Amino acid sequence: MKLIRARDYDHMSRQAANIISAQVILKPDSVLGLATGSSPIGTYRQLIDWYRKGDIDFSQVRTVNLDEYVGLGPENVQSYAWFMRHNFFDHINLPIGNTNIPDGTNPDAAAECARYDRVIRGLGGIDLQLLGLGPNGHIGFNEPDEFFDKGTHRVALREATIQANKRFFDREEDVPRFAYTMGICDIMQASRVVMVVSGASKAAILREAFFGPVTPRVPASILQLHKHFTLVADEEALGEVAVSC
Ligand code: GLP
User: Fold this and answer.
1) Ligand 1: distance of its center to the CA of 145 in Å?
2) Where in the sequence is the domain holding 176, given as residue range(s)?
3) DSSP for 85-139?
4) Any domain includes 239
5) Is residue 46 one of the residues assigned to a domain?
6) What's the total number of domains in the chain?
7) Domain-embedded: residue 244
8) From CA 101, how far away is CA 20, in angstroms rounded?
């Protein structure tokens, strides 16, 4: 694991954007695995800025998103499809046909998960996967469990996740209870993984995930075993980590 210590959220976002931009410059048709949540928004903002300055070209990039709420279509402002367009895709020259997100409107979970696994395989795997860290250690929507779930699957969101994500909805009842998410194998098979973590509220789970045992109870902990995993975290998120590495 490589740890990049950032001063604050903006610095963390620029550091992560630098890694992604290097990836796209070196391999213009890269497959980028993308994430939602508050953590990567600054990274997307920085990439948009560099695109506008003419420094990055996304015209050949292909993307696969980690997850989507079951029941929400792309026109729903709470869907991750909408999030991605609003925060990133609409502002760069990435053809929308090159983007992939699980289809939350497909009620047939087995069919949708099999389709999404085929999409990932068809792209030849992921060159760089960007991740945030859920408050309970989830990655994508791989929730704490007794085992690591391999491929794309439908997951029942844990109470901690519903509580953390209700801020994006008018009412707690509106938070979908299920999601489709890429599995742990899909994420672990990415050639490079970059995680952005910011703020004191993530300090305890960051320590548990990356300075504790590897366990499906803290899904992000599996990343300790990834060969090219870079953690970009700010001072507050690293507040409970004493070591330097
Ligand atoms: C959601 C997403 C995750 C994300 C997590 C953390 O649950 N499914 O991919 O990492 O939220 O979000 P935030 O960055 O807002 O803390």
Assistant:
1) 17
2) 2-234
3) HHHTGGGS---GGGEE---TT---HHHHHHHHHHHHHHTTS-SEEEE---TTS-B
4) no
5) yes
6) 1
7) no
8) 19
Q: What is the pLDDT along the chain (245 residues), one digit of tens a residue?
A: 999 999 999 999 999 999 999 999 999 999 999 999 999 999 999 999 999 999 999 999 999 999 999 999 999 999 999 999 999 999 999 999 999 999 999 999 999 999 999 999 999 999 999 999 999 999 999 999 999 988 999 999 999 889 988 998 999 999 999 999 999 999 999 999 999 999 999 999 999 999 999 999 999 999 999 999 999 999 999 999 976 55
CATH of the domain at 97: 3.40.50.1360
Q: Which among 36, 44, 152, 193 is the best mutation to test ligand 1's pocket, defined by most ligand atoms within 8 Å of the CB?
A: 36
Q: How far is the CA of 233 from the centre of ligand 1 (A)?
A: 15
**Residue 217 forms part of a structural domain:** yes
This prediction's pTM: 0.96
Nearest ligand 1 atom to the CA of 67 is 8
